Model the fold of this input.
Amino acid sequence: MSKLFLPELMLANGGVHRGAGLRVDDNGNVAEVLDAASIAARTDRTDVEVVRLAGKALLPGLANAHSHTFQRLFRGRAEGRKVGGDTFWTWREQMYRAAAFVTPESLYDVARATFLEMVASGITVVGEFHYLHNDALGKPFANPNELALQVMRAAESVGIRICLLRSAYMRAGYRKDPHAGQRRFYETREKSVANAEALQKAAGRFKNATVGLAPHSIRAVPLDAMKELAAVAGKHGMPLHIHVSEQIAENEACLAEYGETPIELFNEHGLLTRRTTLIHAIHLTGPEMDEVSAAGATICSCPTTERNLGDGIFPADVAARLGISVAFGTDSQAQIDILEDARQSEYHLRLIAQQRGMLDQIGGVEIGTRLLHCATASGYKALGVDGGDLKPGQPADFFTLDLSDMALLGMDETSLASQAVFAGSRAAVRDVAVAGRLVLADSHHAQEEEIRARYKEVQQAFLNEEAQ
Amino acid sequence: MSKLFLPELMLANGGVHRGAGLRVDDNGNVAEVLDAASIAARTDRTDVEVVRLAGKALLPGLANAHSHTFQRLFRGRAEGRKVGGDTFWTWREQMYRAAAFVTPESLYDVARATFLEMVASGITVVGEFHYLHNDALGKPFANPNELALQVMRAAESVGIRICLLRSAYMRAGYRKDPHAGQRRFYETREKSVANAEALQKAAGRFKNATVGLAPHSIRAVPLDAMKELAAVAGKHGMPLHIHVSEQIAENEACLAEYGETPIELFNEHGLLTRRTTLIHAIHLTGPEMDEVSAAGATICSCPTTERNLGDGIFPADVAARLGISVAFGTDSQAQIDILEDARQSEYHLRLIAQQRGMLDQIGGVEIGTRLLHCATASGYKALGVDGGDLKPGQPADFFTLDLSDMALLGMDETSLASQAVFAGSRAAVRDVAVAGRLVLADSHHAQEEEIRARYKEVQQAFLNEEAQ
Done:
C-alpha cells in the first residue's frame, strides 16, 4: 500500500510547499508531490496509508558522505594537549587505540549507536569509509569482510541507508615502516580487490546497502594499486572515495614520491571522474580545483571534524564558483549534525574574509538552498544513489523538523532553507524515513533502549582497558 | 521547605560527583552538596522536598552575558548577499528594521520567546544589553524605561535571571549625522543617567533582576559621557558593559577622534575595572590585552554571532594566558547554544593555527573545565552575580543534561566537562532551575504554548510589514 505523508511545510521536487502531500509508492520511492487541492479532492483513500506530520517541515534526508563510526568511542576524550604539545598525529594515537579495541561484536554495537545518532539528526544515508579489516593481531578473519559486514548489519538494524566504502590500506606511507597501530587496516593489493568484489556480492543480502571503493589516500595506497582499484570501481560502477589534502604534510610526501601533488597525479592517471569523491581537499591550489571541477568529481568537506583536528578551512567559495559538487561528512564523529557542518562551510570563510554572504548568489543560487543541496543531493551523488531532491522516482528518504522548536519558531516558506541551515540542529529533528519507512517517529526509535545499553557496556570496557 | 536535587552526576562546588545531592535552602541558594553516604544516612526527609533527576548530569547554569533579544525576529533571514555585496553594515539595516518595528507589547512577546529558548538551552542568567528606549518616532515613552521594563517583565514571566544592561547611545559616531535607524536608541547624557538610576530603583519589583550600565561603544558615546556613566555604575556597584573592537573600523574612528585606541583610552580614564565587561574585543593588540588583564576586567566573547557577522576570531589563547576572565554571549541570537559558543572559542583558534588543544593546560587547567568555567562562573561575574560554581551560598541556578542523549552517551565523571563542551548542545538539556525553582522540567515550560503562539503572531506581523 502506498503512503501519503502530510507535513505542514515540505521541501521537495524543487520547491517549498505548504499543505502538500508526499505520496510514496510500494517500493519506497517518491510517486508524486500532491498540492493541497489535489489532496482534498482524493476522497477515496482506502488505497493509501495517511501519515500526518502536523506542525513539521519535511525535507530531503541528510547525507553523511564520510563517516568512521568506531571513532565515536573516544568522543570528547581526546581534546587535551598532551605533554610536549598536541597535533593531529597525537589524536591519531587515540584513534589507533579504539581501532585496536573493537571486536566484531563491539563494533556492531558502536556502529548501531552511532547510526542511531545519525538517524536522530536527520541523516538517511551514510558513506561508511571502513578501514578495519583484520583481527586485533593483524590477521584476516575467516571471512575477511567480517568487520565490514558487521557495520552493514548495524546499518540495517537501525534502518539507515549505507554505502560501505571499503578502504584499501597498504602501507604507513612513502618510505615508512609498517605501523603497529595500522595492523588491522593492511591488506595486499590482490586481497583488497578480491575482498571488495566479494563484499559487493554480499551487499545484496542487506536492505538499502551498496558498496564503494575507498583507497585510503596516496600516502597509504601507492599509485599503481590506486589505479587498479579505480579500474575495479569503474567496472562495477562503484563510487570511489579517497582522502586527499587534509594535511599539508601529505602533499609534501606525495611530491617527494611522485614529483606531483595528489590531485595532479590523480588527474594525470584518470582517477578523477564523476564517481570520484575527494575527502577534505582543503589545501588545493587554484589549478587543482580546476581539475576537480573539469572531472565532475565531488569534494566531501567535514568542517566539524576539520575544526576539531585543526586541519584548516576548505575554500567552499572557490569550489562553488567552479561548480564543484560539495558534500558533507561527520568523519570523526566529534559531533553528528550535518546542518552544523553546512553552516560552518559558510561561517569559516566569513571568519577569515571578515565578510558575510560568502556562498550566496554564486551562479544565482541562494545561500540556504545551496548549502541544503550540498547536505542532501550532493551527498547522495557522492554515494552513488540517485536521491536527495525528493523527485518522483527517487527514494523517499526524508526527515522532519519540528516547527515548534524554539530555534525554528517562525520558519515559513520563504525562510525554510536558510533557517534550517543557519538555525536548525538535531534538536529539532522528529521523524526520519528511509525508502518511505519511518525509522524515527516523534524522536523515538524502536530499539533505542537496547542500542544505548549495549553501547554503554562497550564504552565502559574501552575505558576499563585504558585504565589498566 | 528546602529541596534536595538528586542527579546521577553533578558538577558542583569544585568537583564532579556521582550519586550526590544538591540541597537548596528556602532562599534558593545552595546549602550543601551531600555525598551518597550522607544522603542514605538522612532517614528523616520530612523537612526536605526530594527532586529526582535520574539519568541526568547537573551542571551550574549557563550565563549568557550579552544578548539583544529583539534580534531574534530576523534570524535566518539576513544571511544573503545584497546586490553590490554584503557586509556587517547591511546586516545592520535589517537590525534597524526590527528595532523600528517592535512595540512595548510585541517586544514583550519576542523577549519571552527568546528567553524561553535560552532557558531551554540551559541558560539561567541573561545580560540583556538593551538599547531600545524611545517610541518608533524617536520620542521617549511616558515612562522612558517602558521598553526596558517590558524586557524585565518578560524575563520574570519566563523565570530566567536577568541583568538589564541599560545602554547609553548618543550619536551615530564621530563626525556622523544622527541616523534615522537609531532614533529609538538616542538619549542625552543627562536623560541616560537619570533613566538608568530610575530603572535600578524599579528593578526591585522583579524577581531575580538587577540593572547594569552599558555605554554602547566609544563610537556611540563620547568619552566624557562614558566617564560619567562609569562613575554612576561605580557609585551603585553596577556592572559596566561596553562594545569594543568588534570591527576594525571602530578602532580607526576612535584613533581619529582621540588619537588612541578604545582600550588605551578606557585604561587611561579609569574605565577598566573588575566590574567592566568588554564585548567582543576581537582586534586588540598585545599591550591592550595586558591592560585588560591588569584591570581584572572581563571580555565577553560571542563566537556564534562573530562568525555570523564575519567579525573575526577572538584570541582566546592570549586571554587565557593573561588570566583574563572570558564570558560568552549569544548577542544577535543567530543561534542560542552557549556550549556551541564554548567549543568555537577553541575551534576557531585551531582552524587558524592548524593545531589542537589550544586552550588546554594553560595555567594547568584542563580545556573542558576552562571552557565550562567561562560559560558559567565568568558570565556570572560579568553580570555582577556571585554564582556559577554551585558553592554553598551561591544561587542554585543549574541545568541538567540527559545522559541518554545520543551525543553524550558514555559521559562519566572523567569526561563530563570535556564532553559537555565538545559534544553537548541544547538538544540534551532537560531541566533548568533558577534560584532553586525548576523553570524547565523534562524539557517543558509551563507557558510554552502561549509563548510560542504569541511569538508567531509577532513574527508574522513583522513579515507582513516587510512585504508591504
About this structure: The mean pLDDT of chain A is 95. Chain A has two domains: 2-60+391-440, 62-382.
